[in-house]
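[job 0412] stage=complex_fold ligand=phenylalanine status=START
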Amino acid sequence: MHMRGRILLLGGAIGLVAAALSGCGGTDSGAILIGEFASLTGKEATFGISSHQGTALAVEEINAAGGILGRPLELRTEDDQSKAGEPANVVNKLISRDGVVAVLGEVASSRSLEAAPVCQANKVPMISPASTNPKVTESGDYIFRVCFIDPFQGTVMANFASKTLRARKVAVFTDVKSDYSKGLAKFFKEGFVKAGGQICAELDFNGGDKDFKAQLTAIKAAAPDAVFVPGYYTDVAIICIQAKQLQLSVPFFGGDGWESEKLVEIGGAAMEGHYFSTHYAADNPTPRITAFVEAYKKRYAGKTPDAMAALGYDSVMFLADGIKRAGGTEASGLRQALAETKEFEGVTGKMAMNSQRDAVKAAVILQIKGGKFRYMATVAP
Ligand code: PHE
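[job 0412] stage=complex_fold status=DONE, emitting structure tokens
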């Protein structure tokens, strides 16, 4: 009995040493384990697939160039199925089962907001590629993002409506199920009123609804010059189709949530001429963007990378830069190095981390023309 207990103990100790050598975030010689959670399936699947493909491409490029501090990166990816409840679940797995040194994700703000407290409680740095709601990084000092935030994006689109569209009266149509949509609606309204405009109608929908005609009829009755829809592409496309059927033929415009090739696939001609703000334009011919677009197309059967793909890529490069400057992956040192990022040049532009760990950087405005997204303008912070 006594003997057996000791052998078991010894076995346990060997197991522990083996685990320390092989994994749990990696040791000096092994791979650096990085976690990623994304909506690979479900309602916003294109968000997750794009961000994942950009993320994976960056990991492959880093490894092909010899890794970071001589160690390869190993990416563990979990699908949250675009579902509430899943982000906390899968991020817990990445942290306690795999022992990742950092977590990358998510695109949608509501899902980043769910995962952030888990990362913060475990002191594992989390980098959201694309969640723009300000509350995300308020979860704590281990939470970062490589995108701008919605007070900025809302102001950009408020000025666009007032100066470029010359709209005086705008209707706002908000997805009340999404933190992103509610936040962006609020910041847009504040900015537009400040620019001298008037909000002539405010209507709500629930992401996933199929019939928007009652609200669109009310919007039409308010005779707006333009309609702001801070939603995600699936809903936006159906909204624009139904608006067209109701002959509500004023410009529609929105934010980065519009960005998916599915927007035009679903919405077709109903999307023509409309506008949205986002993080980067694939057709903007800077050398950095051209090189990225080429590498991505080569890797993914000719597909053009959208903003989520570019931001997923940037999230890895930003993390890699932090690990290099920290000289390792120890959590508090890595957190500090990331927080001290003064200038980082990504595919989506130059950015600096501010004291809230949000990236300060420019936005772009695109127009849908001939079924394609056309670059119109860059707006600096
Ligand atoms: N910014 C959106 C959010 O916070 C997500 C998004 C980013 C969508 C980029 C499309 C492109 O929910």
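The CA atoms of residues 284 and 375 lie 7 Å apart.
[job 0412] exit 0
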